[in-house]
Amino acid sequence: MQRWINQVWYGKSLFRWILMPLSWLYALVTAMRRCLYRLGIKKSISLPVPVIVVGNITVGGSGKTPTVIYLIELLRQQGYRPGVISRGYGVNIEGVKSVFVGAKANEVGDEPAMIVARTQVPMVVGSQRIQAADQLLSDFDVDIIISDDGLQHYGMARDIEIVILDGDRRLGNGMLLPAGPLREGAWRLDQADFVISNGGEARGGEYLMTLLPKQVTPLLATSTFTFNLHDPVVAIAGIGYPQRFFNSLKVLGYQVHKTHAFDDHQAYHLSDINNVAGSYPLLMTEKDAIKCGDFAQENWGYLAVDASMSAEFEHHFLDKISARIQAHSSHF
């Protein structure tokens, strides 16, 4: 299903024209919703600390999670105490829930579990972002909130918007859902504080982000298996844009025998992966690994990545954060 959707959104499938009337309806509904907020009929709730929204205007993976991890580390280096809120996609959460190290992906979502495992950041997940933010502020000592996704959640006021674009696929066919991948039109980029291009070429006003691969890590902490570049491996990925991961492995020199793309946020079972990998060494993304720890095999490994940004972005971002903290101090 995901492969067919990508053909419609990022290829030349004529099926997009059949879906165009639904895109018009989607545009009308979302425009009316934005209008209600502009007129004050629907209220945006402000929080007592600065809120940074990291999102996108397209459906699918663009690099939000590495960006969130990068921002957590950058803010900590400056002495700030960030916390994170997230929807927790792929799981049904009643109310809100704090995420702690060792949390299972099927309980809090794969991306929240991965972010906390990597950074130990205070984090709360739930479909109601204001409630999640309130619990985060109540239970943890944080002075900045990062919202993982939520760009279109206008019920929560935000101080800084960061939009992540896939530098390769950009805006696809440029159409709104469901004919295209856009949640909002390209005009929305002009309203964001920062637009980051994940790979590809950063265009006017955008900042380039590079994902730097780390060393392959075995899923089993006790594993002594060595992943050699000259040995054939199978690669799987259950992320928004699996081909980026597969391409990375080939650039690094791995002999990729076979690739298999699972759906984003898909829950895994041992049989699913064994049917694909057989006895071959298996490589996957860090987000996949967080869902496979309970049944990991000796020859399974994952490739983590770190986001890298320019000094110019860091300078402008930290200046804006400082200004927003001062504004909050005088307002609340």
UniProtKB/TrEMBL annotation:
Ranges annotated as spanning the membrane? 14-32
Keyword Transmembrane in annotation: yes
**What is the native source organism of this protein?**
Shewanella surugensis
**Catalysed conversion reaction:** a lipid A disaccharide + ATP = a lipid IVA + ADP + H(+)
| An example Gene Ontology molecular-function term | lipid-A 4'-kinase activity
Keywords for the protein's UniProt record, in alphabetical order = ATP-binding, Kinase, Lipid A biosynthesis, Lipid biosynthesis, Lipid metabolism, Membrane, Nucleotide-binding, Transferase, Transmembrane, Transmembrane helix
Q: Identify which top EC class this enzyme belongs to.
A: transferase
Q: State the pathway, as annotated in the record.
A: Glycolipid biosynthesis; lipid IV(A) biosynthesis; lipid IV(A) from (3R)-3-hydroxytetradecanoyl-[acyl-carrier-protein] and UDP-N-acetyl-alpha-D-glucosamine: step 6/6
EC number(s): the record gives: 2.7.1.130
Q: Determine if Lipid metabolism is one of this entry's keywords.
A: yes
Q: What this chain does, per the record?
A: Transfers the gamma-phosphate of ATP to the 4'-position of a tetraacyldisaccharide 1-phosphate intermediate (termed DS-1-P) to form tetraacyldisaccharide 1,4'-bis-phosphate (lipid IVA).
The primary gene name is lpxK
A Pfam family recorded for this sequence: LpxK
Q: What's this protein's name? A: Tetraacyldisaccharide 4'-kinase
